[in-house]
UniProtKB/TrEMBL annotation, chains A, B:
GO biological process, one term: pantothenate biosynthetic process
Protein's name in the database: Pantothenate synthetase
Function: Catalyzes the condensation of pantoate with beta-alanine in an ATP-dependent reaction via a pantoyl-adenylate intermediate.
The organism's taxonomic lineage, starting at the top: Bacteria, Bacillati, Bacillota, Clostridia, Eubacteriales
GO cellular component terms, semicolon-separated: cytosol
HAMAP family listed in its UniProt record: PanC
Binding site for ATP: 30-37, 147-150, 176, 184-187
Pfam families: Pantoate_ligase (PF02569)
């Protein structure tokens, strides 16, 4: 496995692999890899001949008061995990390589980026779509793998790819959780031991929602009341949003039907975490 | 030569050509082809194995009070010209094929798009970069050819390609003029016979500027005074802008040096025309 920092060098390698008929799999990450990332890399390795993992803490997707500076970084550890997953290349560019002086171009998806995380993090998705468009042009992958913990991100990127006629398949992959249910996230390492325990309330409250829906509840308001009640058992949690939306449009729904996303964002200590569940093929009543 | 209206069909054709090692040349146009376009198609045919000409009057680059509805269209005539130039494919999608219901993604280059035509046509370049990004993803050309009559457009697209790491060479081509000096434009057909004569003042005033610079003048203000004086000899011309800018940054300059663009936009009757000259390698004095 090679670590490449230069865009041109990576492009040359990819061009050669493609000339040899190789299919390229791509896992874009901000590093500090965990088992969630590992599952993406493994899937990419199974489905493609050649796998690129990018590790780039992308400044344009962080707001000015967000955690860019304290976002965890550990390239050496990442190397080992990427290698175990079967990656062929780690692409680890500098900020200057990605955004040289005078950089001025942005890709923006409207509407679904204005909801959920887009509403609480203005400009966040513009940073995401811009860097991913760049990475797609650099890596030119056949398939790109994204975790569904960032469900809205997946939907935004699928929209970008479709609207801009990009030739890449965006492949959403299930959330990987710790044994106790906490959704894996690079940010978890910044939780204090106490906050780490508190954070469990996110997955617990989503499990509660799932349970209520399984029992037949379809009224979003009723479900939200129960979720909020569960979250309230941890009074130090500062809720950013709890939303029940259609997974296609990200519009709030009153009655659950079809493919539904229940998503939570909350601050626990200094760390903002997100979690969600996707409920598929919901009949309007059971 | 084939006319293709479906994005998927074109992608399939291009994929096959590329698998056979063919280099793809691309000439994006809004149709109503003239000798300027022909020169681009001919150059593309010389430099590539396979040439795609797109004909698409792109609604997103027209403002609400602009001439989208009266922009001239004549596919039959365009076919003949493209064929003479050596094109292999005309790509002629519908608006719905390019912007299906729910379309929401835009590519935007900041800063240089806020000047000249960007200042007088808000949103224009956002429409241009968006449609060209889409077309580049659909056609995946090795080389794309653009006329320098739209000098700012060329600069904006070069910036987009560089910033987004796109793998295409944007090739600027010289303005083609009528025998009397009028820069070729599809919009010229909308000029009345009287306005057609009046329109000559644009190229004449630029020729005047060139003459003054050749005589040693380097002060932008002095040159602008002379250009305006020449333009004023046709009092029906409504000037949108006359600018002397650095060709790299599109910033106004006081003293001409290096690579300089002198650009004019003006309304003649109901038709907005643009013209420019690029002065290369100007020493600061002669």
């Amino acid at each position: 496995m090679k670590i490449i920092t230069s865009i041109d060098e990576l492009k040359t390698i990819i061009r050669k692999e493609k000339q040899n008929g190789k299919q390229i799999g791509f896992v874009p990450t901000m590093g500090y890899l965990h088992d969630g990332h590992l599952s993406l890399i493994e899937k990419a390795s199974i489905e493609n001949h050649f796998v690129v993992v990018s590790i780039f803490v992308n400044p344009t997707q962080f707001g000015i008061n967000e955690d860019f500076d304290v976002y965890p970084r550990d390239l050496e550890r990442d190397q080992k995990i990427a290698e175990i997953g079967g990656a062929n290349i780690i692409f680890h560019p500098t900020i200057k390589e990605m955004y040289p002086n005078g950089y001025r171009t942005y890709v923006e998806v409207e509407e679904i980026t204005e909801k959920l995380c887009g509403a609480s993090r203005p400009g966040h998705f513009r940073g995401v779509t811009t860097v991913v468009a760049k990475l797609f042009h650099i890596v030119t992958p056949h398939r790109a793998y994204f975790g569904l913990k960032d469900a809205q991100q997946v939907a935004v990127l699928q929209k970008m790819v479709k609207d801009l006629n990009m030739d890449v398949q965006v492949i959403p992959c299930p959330i990987v959780r710790e044994a106790d249910g906490l959704a894996m996230s690079s940010r978890n390492v910044n939780l204090s031991p106490q906050d780490r325990k508190t954070a469990l309330i996110l997955s617990k409250s989503l499990a509660k929602a799932k349970e209520i829906v399984a029992a037949g509840e379809r009224n979003a308001e009723m479900i939200l009341i129960q979720v909020k009640k569960t979250l309230a058992t941890e009074p130090t949690v500062i809720i950013d949003y709890i939303e029940i939306v259609d997974f296609e449009t990200f519009e709030r729904i009153d009655i659950l039907k079809g493919r539904v996303l229940i998503a939570i964002a909350a601050k626990i200590g200094k760390v903002r975490l997100i979690d969600n569940i996707i409920l598929e093929d919901l009949p309007s009543c059971i």
